[in-house]
Design brief:
Distance between the termini: 35 Å
Helix content: 10-25%
Largest sheet: 8 strands, mixed
Number of helices: 9
Structural class: alpha+beta
Strand content: 25-35%
Bound molecules: zinc ion
Length: 340
């Protein structure tokens, strides 16, 4: 029956600043702040936002928009909502909220998107910084304890990261691992030449002091002038931030919808393995590059270019197969939460 699941890693580069908001929480001088990791305080894109946006774009790409996109609740007349078909690539991959066999959680699970490389202005031009805990996400372990310094391929004169001046020390070995994530050769060389490593706490500090903050004002349509008291500011991850997220794709053959097998197709082939589930997710990637993610899309924000996507590894994937296969399939709980 094959592996029970497979993990895919996706790397995206912001072509615009990216604002995924918290929903109007004021933070210091900023009115509309972005979502942060509660522990590290580094901004991130929640997996729920990624999953929702990817669902919408994949539905557009596969002619399932708008019915299989969105939250899926039918209108009061009973029309609309997710189709919930076991032959629907969107409803099987992203889940659905109703249907003949009750709800279904979906075959693809999205992690949060974390900042992997953060661009910061220096007197020598842009530098992309990262940290040990971030590098661990791509399987790169830094064992040395780091000082309050910037670590680069070669040591040298102190360098400013924004307003913060740091000593430059030498640290090698991790740069190649980062460069492997760039499929585009020119981009790989350019970013690869300008990489820096910071201790975790310094990384948080540098990221939060170098976010893009913009100020906007609402315009009164009658006068064409600024509305009184309508000035607001918002923050965003700057252009050229590199983000990483993971998508765990489950094996469609291990799941039942309404007691029956999943029979969706992708690229004119039956969706019968985790890799084909990821093919459906990948349909959204082109749209991310043009339609973007998060808010302020009409103000030049949000476009995210997927520069790399691949299977993270397959060594652990097969061992869990027998455990998961023995669990009842989610669709078997017929009608328990479908009829409300
Ligand atoms: Zn559907």
């Amino acid at each position: 029956m094959g592996k029970s699941y497979e993990q895919f890693r996706v790397i995206g580069l912001g072509i615009d600043p990216i604002h995924v908001g918290t929903g109007g929480q004021r933070l210091g001088r900023v009115d509309l702040s972005i979502v942060r990791d509660p522990v590290t305080r580094v901004p991130k894109i929640p997996g729920s936002s990624l999953a929702g946006v990817c669902r919408t774009y994949a539905a557009m790409a596969l002619n399932r928009y708008p019915m299989c996109a969105g939250q899926g609740q039918p209108e009061q007349t009973g029309h609309g909502g997710h189709c919930g078909g076991r032959d629907c690539p969107i409803c099987t991959v992203f889940g659905f909220a109703r249907g003949t066999g009750g709800g279904f959680a979906g075959l693809a699970a999205f992690s949060d998107a974390h900042v992997l490389l953060f661009p910061v202005a220096t007197r020598k031009g842009p530098l992309w910084v990262t940290s040990p805990s971030v590098l661990r996400l791509i399987g790169c372990q830094i064992n040395d304890s780091l000082e309050s310094a910037l670590y680069q391929k070669e040591g040298g004169q102190p360098l400013n990261l924004g307003w913060l001046l740091l000593e430059v020390k030498q640290h090698n070995g991790w740069q190649e691992k980062v460069k492997q994530l760039f499929c585009d050769k020119d981009l790989r060389e350019y970013v690869g030449q300008n990489l820096g490593l910071l201790r975790d706490d310094l990384f948080t500090h540098v990221v939060n002091s170098n976010l893009e903050v913009r100020t906007s004002v609402s315009i009164n349509p009658e006068t064409g002038a600024a509305e009184e008291g309508a000035l607001f500011s918002y923050e965003a991850l700057p252009r050229a931030t590199v983000l990483m997220w993971e998508v765990v794709c489950k094996n469609p053959q291990h799941f039942r919808i309404g007691g029956q097998e999943v029979c969706a197709q992708v690229n004119s082939k039956p969706m019968s393995a985790p890799a084909e589930v990821f093919e459906v997710v990948k349909k959204a990637h082109d749209y991310l590059e043009h339609l973007g993610i998060g808010g302020m899309g009409t103000r030049g924000m949000g476009r995210l270019w997927v520069i790399h996507s691949s299977s993270a590894s397959s060594s652990q994937a097969s061992t869990a197969a027998s455990v998961e296969a023995s669990q009842p399939a989610p669709g078997d709980s017929t009608g328990s939460h479908g009829g409300t």
